[in-house]
């Protein structure tokens, strides 16, 4: 974590560094900090590591609305078909 914090001092808008710091915070049990870092990373780059489990911090904290907002936005298309009888 100290290396990531130093990297962010040099470049505070580095989305990957925020994301990795958030991930590190989660494993350290600093869940609030984890969520904040992941949010900052997504503000800087909305497509960053969409399949990562770092935002699970919200789930562990019981912040289900925040957790659900971390899911990628999907477009749904209705498929229509007909069945010949």
Characterise the protein shown here.
α2 runs antiparallel to α3. The protein has helices at residues 2-10, 15-28, 31-44, 56-61, 64-69. The model is unreliable at 75-81 (pLDDT under 50). It is globular. With 85 residues, it is mainly alpha-helical. The N and C termini lie far apart (64 Å). The longest helix is centred in the first third of the chain and has 14 residues, at 15-28. It is built from five helices and no strands.
The biggest beta sheet reads:
none
Number of strands: 0
H and E order: HHHHH
Unreliable sequence segments = 75-81
| Count of helical regions | 5
N- and C-termini, Cα separation = 64 Å
Share of residues in strands: under 5%
Q: What keywords describe this structure?
A:
85 residues; mainly alpha
In short, what is this structure?
The protein has helices spanning 2-10, 15-28, 31-44, 56-61, 64-69.
Write the layout of secondary structure elements.
Layout: H1 2-10, H2 15-28, H3 31-44, H4 56-61, H5 64-69
Helix pairs in contact: 1-2, 2-3
């Amino acid at each position: 974590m100290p290396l990531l914090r130093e990297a962010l001092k040099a470049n505070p808008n580095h989305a990957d560094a925020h994301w990795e710091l958030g991930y590190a915070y989660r494993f350290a049990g600093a869940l609030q900090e984890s969520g904040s870092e992941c949010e900052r990373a997504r503000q800087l780059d909305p497509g960053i590591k969409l399949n990562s489990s770092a935002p699970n911090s919200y789930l562990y904290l019981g912040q289900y609305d925040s957790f659900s907002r971390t899911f990628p936005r999907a477009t749904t298309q209705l498929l229509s078909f007909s069945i010949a009888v």
